[in-house]
Design brief:
The protein is an alpha/beta fold and 480 residues long. The protein contains 19 helices and 15 strands. The strands form four sheets. It has a five-stranded parallel β-sheet with strand order 3-2-1-4-15, sandwiched between helices. The N and C termini lie far apart (65 Å).
């Protein structure tokens, strides 16, 4: 037992990388904590109990080999730890930063159940891969011999990029089409730098481009080319667009100037971080500086908006959510970070109207209470007849989630099967859509979800497409 580097949770306390003071981090968009020093990473990894049934891996959508790379880290074998973490994930350092570990791996850690505090899995994962980049251990994509077949990937978010990497590894010519001017999807334009600094994303994209994956930016399917045209141009197509249509709250004053969708607001902020010209930010429409800001919603996107507004210099930031703290969908860690930075949460409240003539001036809201559980098992909010409240607001940001766009109409592809929610229907085994050779993965199939699930879906669909493309090539050879 003396030689065992693990099971140190009884003597080594849980310690995350220290966060910068809240007043300092609220002044910039840098990540709020640096990575571990090597000794601290080894100490925290050594707390793992090496369970016979590792619930951390079971509850990770990617089923990462978490106990194994924790042990390698504890032993100082970092390059091997990186190679193992990289074996199941195309973006381990990104997942280490933005996964809600408190709901996934760390939330299901056995020593968390025993009262010793979970192993800090996400922070160790970030440390391993950041170290690998710094040391030059991240190898180029290993591109297989050319198969003479090409694949179109529509959407350069985590699902599309993951599938592109695996398919390129199999030797396919891969073309990624995205309507934005940079790849990354929500990783680039939706998630603020204080959670995910953009060079972390860009270096992944540069690695894919160096492997010969061709990126077509500013390319909107339905405008630059129809879906059918891409099918004619390529041997297979992957739809990985994500879901971008903002959900609405049907209350009076919805169209009042100063009431804006979350993604418009976050995209403007991230573009400014890149140094882009953003007229809607520069004219003040999407800039919170000097304003009283009210954010509507309780998910991680709402937390991103709250914390961005603080950094932009808002005079006050309030978050309205119709349930209580225990029933909110967002990460409790993000709520705590927002509170530390000066945000105020108005629990059990829902907007009734956005008020103001020519420019929003306030939010009239109803008090709520929790009734019986709904279909999801969460207690459903209902209006509390106890009264209303009024909040001043110069900027209201609606962070109510995202739905699928009407792809069959946008793309001129009425034969593309979609659900009543607009998500693309796929065969559960092959992940193929109603169109032969057209596959789909990520949020456009499952609805708005986590980045780690998009990576898992990209990995799965790449395997299915590889199998289908091999069969197609074989059939063509036989026919010839």
């Amino acid at each position: 037992m003396a030689d065992n580097p693990m099971l140190k949770f009884v003597v080594e306390g849980q310690a995350y990388p220290p966060k910068r003071p809240a007043d300092m981090r609220a002044e910039d968009f840098r990540e709020i904590a640096d990575r571990y020093a090597p000794e601290a990473a080894e100490d925290q990894a050594s707390r793992c109990s090496q369970c016979g049934v590792p619930y951390c891996s079971v509850h990770c959508p990617l089923h990462n080999h978490i106990p194994d790379w924790l042990r390698l880290t504890a032993e100082g074998r970092l390059r091997e730890a990186f190679e193992l973490s990289n074996a199941t994930s195309t973006m381990p350092e990104i997942c280490g930063r933005i996964c809600p570990q408190d709901r996934l791996c760390e939330g299901n850690c056995v020593i968390e159940f025993s009262g010793h505090g979970a192993v800090t899995i996400g922070s160790v994962e970030k440390f391993i891969t950041d170290t690998a980049w710094a040391e030059g251990w991240v190898e180029p994509v290993a591109v297989g011999p050319s198969r003479g077949q090409s694949v179109a990937v529509i959407g350069a978010g985590p699902a599309g990029l993951t599938a592109a990497e695996y398919l390129r590894g199999h030797g396919y010519d891969v073309h990624v089409y995205d309507r934005h001017d940079r790849a990354g999807g929500l990783l680039t334009y939706g998630i603020p730098g204080f959670k995910l600094e953009k060079p972390v994303v860009m270096r992944r994209i540069e690695r894919l481009a160096a492997a010969g994956i061709v990126f077509h930016y500013g390319f909107a399917v339905g405008e630059q080319a129809s879906l059918d045209a891409l099918r004619q141009r390529h041997d297979a197509v992957l739809i990985a667009t994500g879901v971008y249509k903002a959900r609405q709250v049907e209350v009076a004053g919805n169209a009042t100037p100063g009431v804006v969708p979350a993604l418009d607001y976050l995209t403007a902020s991230n573009r400014k971080g890149f140094g882009d010209a953003v007229p809607a930010f520069d004219d003040g429409s999407l800039d919170a500086e000097g304003k009283s800001v009210v954010v509507i919603g309780g998910g991680d996107t709402a937390m991103d908006c709250v914390r961005t507004a603080i950094r932009q210099g808002a005079t006050s930031v309030k978050c309205l959510y119709r349930r209580d703290r225990a029933n909110m969908p967002g990460s409790q860690r993000e709520v705590a970070n927002a509170e530390e930075e000066g945000a105020e949460f108005v629990w059990l409240s829902a907007p009734l109207a956005f008020e103001g003539e020519g420019q929003v001036a306030g939010v009239r809201a109803s008090r709520m209470r929790l009734g019986a559980p709904d279909a999801s098992g969460r207690r459903a909010p209902e209006v509390d007849p106890g009264g209303e409240l009024a909040l001043e607001a110069d900027l209201v940001i609606k962070a109510l989630g995202f739905d699928a766009e009407d792809l069959p109409t946008l793309w001129g592809a009425p034969e593309l099967g979609v659900s009543r929610w607009g998500t693309v229907l796929v065969d559960g085994k092959t992940l193929m859509t109603s169109l032969d050779g057209v596959f789909a993965a990520g949020d456009i199939v499952r609805g708005a979800s986590l980045v780690v699930w998009a990576i898992r879906d990209g990995r799965d669909v790449a395997a299915s497409m590889h199998k289908w493309l091999k069969a197609k090539a074989k059939a063509e050879r036989v026919a010839a």
